[in-house]
Write a structure and sequence with these properties.
heterodimer; A: mainly beta; six-stranded mixed beta sheet; about 0% helix; globular; B: mainly beta; seven-stranded mixed beta sheet
Chain lengths: ~110, ~110
Amino acid sequence: DQQVKQNSPSLSVQEGRISILNCDYTNSMFDYFLWYKKYPAEGPTFLISISSIKDKNEDGRFTVFLNKSAKHLSLHIVPSQPGDSAVYFCAASGNTGKLIFGQGTTLQVKP
Amino acid sequence: DAGVIQSPRHEVTEMGQEVTLRCKPISGHDYLFWYRQTMMRGLELLIYFNNNVPIDDSGMPEDRFSAKMPNASFSTLKIQPSEPRDSAVYFCASSFDEKLFFGSGTQLSVL
């Protein structure tokens, strides 16, 4: 049973445009959400996070939006750059200490 | 700090053999996680420890899998006997809050 879902396996955008990656979750006990970025042959690295008390968090070109009623979050990258091409994982945690990840979305930014 | 260190980076073995994956977490981190990455399920949590004690092993697929953390600086994930369907990338991660730091992973191929 997949508690965190990323329904789009891949996304391709043009350099300079906006990339929007989506994530849905089913467990209403989740209260902290994170996005990780993964390059080939490397481990995932932390990108940005958001607490359930907020609906938006911004860090430079990266913004995460949280819609608790829809159990949905999204990552916006503006403007997208070729170096952003990677696999992006959405993750969620509750009060148990464990982090549940989605399947990942492969982003390709074309020059 | 050198980050989370995993060994080996690559492991190729034959079906039925025992496989041991190793992890050295970041000093001072009190949580350690083992994840497995597959195309279908993304990053799948296998087991996690807090202060060297296993907290949740519900993600361990079968009794063939076992994990230990004898001290704060070392953990192992063992598969005995290994099967071709165990082929995947196995990641170790450590943390002291919700943000996990991942190692580079072990690419396991069981022939």
